[in-house]
Design a protein that fits this description.
The protein is 74% helix and 0% strand. The protein contains six helices and no strands. The radius of gyration is 17 Å and the shape is globular. 11% of the residues are buried.
Length: 141
C-alpha cells in the first residue's frame, strides 16, 4: 500500500455518508447509483432533476478535484475492450439480479442494518475475490 492516504479516505467516506444521509433524509431515496441512473431513464416528472444532479456530481466531482489539485495521476487500462464491455454487461446483469448495486446495498443498506443488503454485499465481495483469483491465477491474466 504505497499510496495509502487515511485522511483523504476518512474525509471521502464522511462526505459519502453525509451525501447518502441527506438524500435519504430530504428526499426519502436510497443513493444507489444503478437505481438513480435507471430511474433517470424512466423517471416520473419531478424525479429527473435530483437524479440528474446526483449523476452530474459523480462526473463533476473528480473534475473539480483535478482543477484544485492539478493533473490527475495517469491511469493505465490493461484489459481489452471486449473484456471491459463483457465486464460492464455482467455488472449490469448482477445489479438487476441483486436488486441494487454495491453503493445501494453496501453503503445505504448496511447503514440501515438491512439483512438483505448484508447478504448482497457479502455476495458481491466473494464474487469479486473469486473473479480476481480465476482471472489472475487460473486464466493467467
Amino acid at each position: 500500500m504505497e499510496n495509502f492516504t487515511p485522511l483523504s479516505a476518512l474525509i471521502g467516506g464522511c462526505l459519502i455518508g453525509a451525501a447518502v444521509g441527506v438524500l435519504l433524509w430530504l428526499n426519502g431515496r436510497i443513493a444507489g447509483i444503478s437505481g438513480v441512473l435507471g430511474g433517470l431513464l424512466q423517471a416520473e416528472p419531478g424525479e429527473r432533476a435530483w437524479r440528474f444532479a446526483f449523476l452530474a456530481g459523480l462526473v463533476l466531482g473528480p473534475l473539480l478535484y483535478v482543477a484544485i489539485e492539478g493533473a490527475a495521476k495517469p491511469l493505465t487500462v490493461t484489459s481489452s475492450l471486449p473484456l471491459l464491455i463483457a465486464g460492464g454487461l455482467l455488472v449490469g446483469f448482477g445489479t438487476r439480479l441483486g436488486n441494487g448495486c454495491t453503493s445501494g446495498h453496501g453503503v445505504c443498506g448496511l447503514a440501515r442494518l438491512s439483512g438483505r443488503s448484508l447478504a448482497a454485499t457479502v455476495s458481491f465481495f466473494i464474487t469479486a475475490a473469486l473473479t480476481v483469483f480465476v482471472v489472475r491465477h487460473v486464466l493467467g491474466g
